[in-house]
Amino acid sequence: SASIASGPAGVALAIEAEDRCPEYGMAILEGVTVGPSPLWVRHRLASLGVRSINNVVDATNLLLLELGQPTHAFDLDRLAGPAIVVRTARPGERLTTLDGKDRALDPDDLVIADAAGPTALAGVMGGAGSEVSSTTTRLLLEVAYFEPRSVRRTARRHGVHSEASHRFERGIDRAGVVVALGRLLKLIDELSPGCRLVGEPVVLRRRPFAPAAIRLRSERLDALLGDVVPFAEARSILRRLGCDEVSGDEREAQFTPPGWRPDLLREADLIEEVGRVRGYDRIAPALPPMVALPPLASRLDDRLRQAAVELGLAEAVTYTFVAPAQLTALEAPAPAVHLLNPLSEERSVLRSSLLPGLLEALGRARRRGERGARLFTVGRTFHTSGDADGLPAERRALGVVLAGPRPAYLGKPEEHDLLDAKAVAHELVARTTGREPTSEAWAAAERPAHLHPRGAARLAVGDHVVGQFGLLHP
After folding, report:
1. In a domain, 288, yes or no
2. Which CATH number is 435's domain given?
3. Beta carbons within 10 angstroms of residue 433's beta carbon
4. Rounded percentage of the chain residues whose pLDDT exceeds 70
């Protein structure tokens, strides 16, 4: 369905995409003289960081800065029909925008079209074919409300961030079209004396602004702010902010937000406004409960980190999520947890080994020209548990990787070898547990697949195997 209206000067106005443009206003001016703006306009725009272009464009920019309402001026004589149709683009349509770029339009793009085709990207940027120039004498002024998500998609798709799209994306005054159109006509009349309004302005309104009432409860207000707020004071604050009080008593009230506050959607938003205006400094501070001692696992992590740093290792903060291919390459245990909606394939499963993150950190260091690396990381790994609830088993672990030349100050640098790995592993266990570990070669059937057969050993403290070290299998 479409909303259709007959405008002044025989201009037909139609809104086909009513869900994305609920309100569209236009006015026709004749006898317009396009030229430089008066000094006060140029000075005002310059003080606000906007370059003066001509009196018509400057009027739209002034209105944008005054009311936050983007507008657009078309050269009426360059519009086919003349007609204005608010619709989505059709397959194969193209548009050259004001920045001179020829753009292929997507069927999801909302456009302002004339009888021949698109002439502007709605809420984003006008088209070069209907641009106001020094020869323009007749204007069609546009003041409309476009849905924020529609403008955001179009702007991102075309890589455009304009002053108009910036406002529309964040939400403008839903009830401000009529006021803004009247103000724009007054500005242009002042900056272009002698211009004439043709007929009456037309505002085609498909969905009038009718905000839903939001409930505010005194009990919830006190609970969320953590302070006792007189309910009469809270109601007074919201009324001063432009909210209409539909009903209210000493315990509960109903408010409808003004059109210029699209961020007020729920009770928590109203409470935030009360706290902000009343002053957060009036809320008595209270310290949260403190835990005297960290848990045992945290203390063990700290001891491991301290020992690793004392041995000259640098900590690498690695991701808990890795790619399945990384675990497969190391022949690590299969991942126990797969994300249903991962950000990328590289972060789609919970790790069952710390090595993928360490090797990834090593690769980044190598790509930046750092040949030698002595890295460690402390964290959890996740494994299939077999529990009825399906939750994975979490194990805390420390991983170390030594690569490239070892630090050398008085001699020639030499590559890290198996003995370096053994020394670091023994020292980490000894400093953390206070007991000297023993090491022995893995049996062929038990050796971890990612370790080379000629350099793989396990560490034990008494009868408990606590770790392993060796050369990474190529």
Report:
1. no
2. 3.30.930.10
3. 16
4. 97
Condensed to tens digits (0 to 9), the pLDDT of residues 444-457 reads 888 888 888 888 89
Asked whether the beta carbons of 1 and 18 are under 8 A apart, the reply is yes
Would residue 176 count as lying in a domain? yes
Section 87-95 average pLDDT: 95
Q: Structure tokens of 307?
A: 């020992």
* pLDDT surpassing 60 at residue 2: no
CATH of the domain at 221: 3.30.56.10
On whether residue 63 sits in a domain, the answer given is: yes
Task: Provide the domain count of the chain.
Answer: 3
Q: What's the domain range around 245?
A: 214-282
Pairing assessment for the beta strands 118-121 and 110-113 based on DSSP bridges: antiparallel
Q: What is the DSSP string of 288-307?
A: PP--SS--HHHHHHHHHHHH
Backbone angles phi, psi at 208, to 5 degrees: -60, 155
Q: Mean pLDDT for the chain?
A: 91
* Sign of the dihedral through C-alpha 451, 452, 453, 458: negative
Question: Kindly report the CA angle at 238 between 235 and 242, in degrees rounded to 5?
Answer: 135
Residue 293 has pLDDT above 70, yes or no: no
CATH number of the structural domain spanning residue 12: 3.50.40.10
Rounded Cα distance, 115 and 383, in Å:
64
